[in-house]
Every structure is written in structure tokens, then in C-alpha cells.
Amino acid sequence: MTVNTEVETFVHDDKAELCKRLFLQFLNEFVEDGVQNYSTNIQEMIRHERNSFAINFSHIEMHNPDLAVLIIEHYYRVYPYLCRVLVDFALERVHLPQNKELYVNFTHVTTNLKIRELNGEKIGKLSKIVGQVVRTHPVHPELVTGSFMCAECQTIIKDIEQQFKYTQPSVCPNKLCNNPSKFILIQHLSKFVDFQKVRIQETQNELPRGSIPRSLEVILRGNIVESAQPGDKCCARAEPSKMKKKEGSDGVTGLKSLGVRELNYKLAFLACNVESQNRKYTSGTSSTFGSEEEITPESVKKQMSEAEWHKIYDMTRDRNLYSNICNSLFPTIHEEGTKLRGDLNVCIVGDPSTAKSQFLKHVEEVSPRAIYTSGKASTAAGLTAAVVRDEDSHEFVIEAGALMLADNGICCIDEFDKMEWKDQVAIHEAMEQQTITITKAGIKATLNARASILAAANPVNGCYDKSRSLKQNVNFSAPIMSRFDLFFVLVDDCDEVTDFAIARRIVDLHTYFSESVSKMYSTDEIRRYITFARQFKPTILPESMEYITEQYKRLRLKDSCGAAKNSWRITVRQLESLIRLSEAMARVYCQDEVLINDSYFYFKLRVQPKHVKEALRLLERSIVRIEQSDINLDQETQPDSQIIPSSNDME
Fold this sequence. Notes:
One of its GO terms (cellular component) is nucleus. It is an enzyme of class 3 (hydrolase). This protein folds into four domains: 14-107, mini-chromosome maintenance (MCM) complex, chain A, domain 1, CATH 3.30.1640.10; 122-244 and 265-276, CATH 2.40.50.140; 329-503, Rossmann fold (3-Layer(aba) Sandwich), CATH 3.40.50.300; 536-626, no CATH class. Helices cover 33% and strands 24% of the residues. It has 23 helices and 26 strands. It starts with 5 loop residues before the first strand and ends with a helix.
């Protein structure tokens, strides 16, 4: 029996048809500032060969609130109709290739939900969630709708929707056949899309007290695959859905003989739009309409409003920019404080109650991409990366650790001295080469860990001993110490005037917080300035390089002479640190060249960079001066470093 026929079933949905008509009316009639933006945007999208069209959901709410409510409440139901409207809207304005699929991506969705707030009531509704990406899976093709041919009567059954598993027709629609299982997939009539699973986790500021962060699987399809990387804090917009936990199951497990049934479903999030909230603060390249565009100061400027750019412009001409930024970042911390960025590694060593952890917390809050962890509670795998078995595919995959999640950002490690020795050895490569190499379970990979490490540690005896060297005061190995560019020591000296000032400051903060805390710049202004400043790539002038070389020779000479005869502290790594610090200081002032003094730019831009000298001062300040007693009874224990005069003393 051979009957070659096609069977199509049409279902009329009144609510979806109403939404389709209202959505087309919105696309045709919405005008902003006298311009039909969506008509222009659809042409731009087709020109760049994209198939995802972004629509500001607030525009729909302003134009037709009833349509907005309809989309939110019945998103999963009406979404296919919205995509068909978009195709019709595009065909009226541009030429589309045959069978080209277009997808609607909603932005500025107002229904914000936390991950732990997603429940059965939210299934099928348009929502927005924010979380941090902790794992990404490879991209692979997914069968969305399949067309099948009956193996017995050759009847073609089109558009069989696939629900996260390969689904054949339940029975052949030909009444003369009624074949229940023998079907052949017709690939050229079926629809495939790119598919990727991403696991996101609750951010720290959304986490209730004493709770463990919850995670959620986010399904990415089409052009939005690869739009989020591990460590990104991203915002996903779409609708929660349910999917089976195990492949091949019917969603129900349990012991039938005992009458025990268990629903074997888990919650997933079908995303229509994913936006990285910290991507605009990172360097490198950005993707616009599918093309890689290098981020430059000019491109960052275009993203700012006129008022924001004027503020950035004024900040570049601030004579006290360096100190004002530090005071604005840490308004409640005094006596010591600096914030270094890029690939610099900084360690804060100090007595208890000297605000070391508070420094780390402030940096984590203000940095667009930062990870905070504790050295005592972290292992080598937790800091670098771990190889785990995927629960779905049962294959080994790499799960990112703290340093990998902080790529192009800052990794704040508190209680660094409490780390095990084997865990400190594990981050040697990450601190120097900025990579993590893994060879385990058949996986060999080199991962990027281009993170700056800001560590905090306590002295070995609980109190910093000024009569001993820095090496004798901390429980660090020599390789770890050489990988830190700067050490800052916070000493809690007993002084009546200082103690009185600190006490008054703390009392004022608790009593009149708003009046006692004054900031020159707000956190958002500093973030925007950092966004603009870090795009500069300063070059070192020949005279600046000569000055750096002379100062390095001076530091080596002073470090090698004397009683200690030990040059463990001043090495080539400290020369590289001096270069990085000089470039960072030039970047702070948005300069393209590293200068020795400010004679030229003082008249041109009215600022005082002093890039190299300030970098040298920071490096020398990190080398702690030793206070020797008049009589040294311990002749066997020699100090490991010498008193290094400043550049002013040499002059």
C-alpha cells in the first residue's frame, strides 16, 4: 500500500490572532521622535544577515498596554505568531531569502524576577532574571519541528513539535494505515536551530541570609548562543518552562506497585534575549549585528549621554583625580588605600581590624566583574577550574573556578595566608602567565585567567612586627611573594590622637552616616570613567624607559648590598611591575604616553600625571622599612630586605 499524501492540521487561536494583529499594528504605527525606528532597524538587521530583531518592550507598554499584558501572560502561546508577524513586516520593506526565519527579542522587560521566585505560576509567562554564568555547554543543532514520512504508506506529516527530545507522530493520520511507530525523518522539510545550555547562579546581592545560591538552566537558541561566557553577570528575558530530568523518561518515575509516583521534571528558562551586564566594562571586542568591533574610546563615548560625557571630560581635567577616585571608592576607610586594576596583583598585609576585608568588599562592589572568595574555604580546583561529569550527557566538562570566572576582572581572596600550600602552588601559573592548564580525565585545555588578584592576609603572629622583614611577617613562599606587584602593610599602632580620630569617625558613621560620608564622584561615575580610561593603551617614551631602567638598577643595587646579600624581593618581575604600574597610572589620566613628569601636560591639559614617579613611589611603599633596635641580640636571624631610599633621597 503506497499513498503519498501530505497531512496538515490547522488550529485557530483567537487570542493569538488578536495578538498578531495588534503587534503588526504596533510595528507599523509606533513613532519615536518623529521616526519609525523599527522600519529602519529591520533593514539594518537584514543587511547584517541577522535573524534576531530587538524590540523595546517599554515601547509596547506605551503604545498598547493591552498588547503588553497579552504578551506577558501568554508569551509561550503567542510567540510563534509574533515571529510570523515580523517576517510579514520585513517582507514589506526588504527582500528576504526564501524560508528565512526571524525571531523577536524583547529588551527592557519590566517583570523582574529572582531565580528562587520562579515557580509553576510563572511557566509560559514573559519574565526577566539576572544571574552569573557558572557553566556553558557546547553549541549543537536542535530539531525544533520535524517532518516525517510514514514508512508504510509514505504519508508526510509536517511540523511535529519537539519537546527537548526526539518526538515522532503518535500514529499515522492515514486511516487506512494507522502505523504507530515506523516513521522516517525528512531533514530538508524539518527545522533545525543552534542550541546551547547555560547554567546561571544567583548573585550575592540577591542571596537571602544563610542560603546557598540556586542555579537554573537557561536554553539559548539561534543567534543568542555564545552570548554569555562563564563569569558574566547576564540578564535573560523569556519564559520559564519544564523539561525532563532524564533522557528517555516519560516525566514520571516511581514504584507503580507501591503506588508511589514522582514527577521527574525540572525547571528551565527559554531565553529570547541575553545581555551581559558587564560586557561594556571589559576590553577587547564587542559584537554588533554579528560583526566583531574593536572597543575604542570613541565607541565608548558614543554609548554615553551628553551629560555623562561632560562628566568624564571634567574628570580627565581634575588636578586631584587620583586621590578623589580613591576617596570616592573608600569614603569610610582612611590612613591607607589604593585600587589597582588590569593584570596587577596586590596583597594587603595588616593587623586585625584594619579594614582589609572592607577594601576587598568595596572593590568587589565597584568593579564591573569581580569574584570574592576566602582562601581558607577555597581549594585549588575551586580557585582555578574543576573537571566534573555532566549530569545530562555524562561526559566530563570543565567547571570554572574563581580565577576563571574573574577573567578580565578582579579576584578578591580574603585570608590568603590561611590557604594550604598545595592550593597556593596551584595558582602560580594563573598569577604569572594569566592562564590555567588542565590535563585530567582525557581533557587537555588551557583556559584564560586574565584576572588581577587582590589578596588580604594577616601577619604570622597576629601582629605585624616592624623589626622583622615582610618575608618574615607573612606565611608566603618566595614564588608567591614574587608574583605580587605590590604589598601594602596596614599597622594598627597605639596612638592617642589616631585612636581618638578613628573612634570619632566610627561614631559619626553610625550616627550621621549621610553627613559624614562625602564623595567627590559617585560609583556610577567612577564606573563610566573606568570604562573610558581602560580603553587607552599607553606607550612608554624612550626617556621614560631610560628612567625606569635607572631606577630598577638602583633598587637592585640597594637590595643586593648590606648584611642580607639577598635579592629575592627585587627581581625582573619587579621591573615588569614597575612598567605595568606606569602604564596603569597613564591610563588613570587617559593619556596615550607614559611620562616622567608633568611639564608638558600641565600647560596642555592642566593635570599632573607623574606616571613613572608615582609608580615608583607605590613600588617603594610596598617594600616595608625595617625598624632596627639599637642592640641586635639575634645575630643569626638577619633581615631579608634593606631600607630602600626613595627617589627624592637619591636626588
